[in-house]
Amino acid sequence: MFDLLGKVFRRDEAPSKEIAKERLRLVLVHDRATVSPQFLETIKEEVIGVITEYMEIDHTGVEVSIHSLDKSVALVASIPIKRMKRTAKAV
User: What is the pTM of this model?
Assistant: First the structure.
């Protein structure tokens, strides 16, 4: 009998603690995904610097952006490669 009453009057909602955690996670993801154009340009330049040690690229076609995904943030880079270098710069 108590099982039936529990099913009828049971809450299917998540506890408020879980709702608050999810909201905070969404706010943090949004904050991380929203960066200044200057910061994104700095990232782009540094990525290009590393990539050009190993390959010749078309600098005019480089695109770098930050996207917010379901539960994370992604750095997305499209870098056209002209050719691979035979030898890499020594570390």
Answer: 0.55
